Amino acid sequence: MEVIVINNQKDFDLDENSIKNVSDFLFKKLEKEENSELNIVFIGKDEIRDLNNKYRNIDKETDVLSFSYLNDKKIFGFIDDAESFKDEYGFFTVGEILICPSVAQENIINYEKEKNLTKELIFLIIHGLLHIYGYDHEKNDDKKLMENKQEELMKEVELNFKDLI
Questions:
Q1: Is the pTM of this model over 0.85?
Q2: What is the CATH number assigned to the segment(s) 2-160?
Q3: How many whole angstroms separate alpha carbon 163 and alpha carbon 157?
Q4: Per-residue pLDDT at 7
């Protein structure tokens, strides 16, 4: 089980090791398959805007985008499903979370959140992970379920990584 953290933005100096440690902890809470991996990519405003427009038809920046490969058979193209991919290659990428730290910092300011950037980024990782594993917030019942799970995971992070948050 592996989380790969890629920092492709230059606006903020991120503690990639700490983010990876927390992400590993969270990933193990949701994923049980040992040969799975997750990509977390930090990108700038232009990139997240382009991707948000391309994949969601929303032409503006956003803080997080997540792409689940767990049940999307069309992503394979050359292979039938996740199990076949794992059999062939020995691992499977469950999904990708793309985060824009610049927009995350704006969230803190605009919504007067009592968070630092690291805590906001962790919240966005949790949010993205939950989307990868099928949680959604379109309907009120689903939203409540997702918010409760986000809260639960954030509390676990706060307990286990006190020095970080």
A1: yes
A2: 3.40.390.30
A3: 10
A4: 97
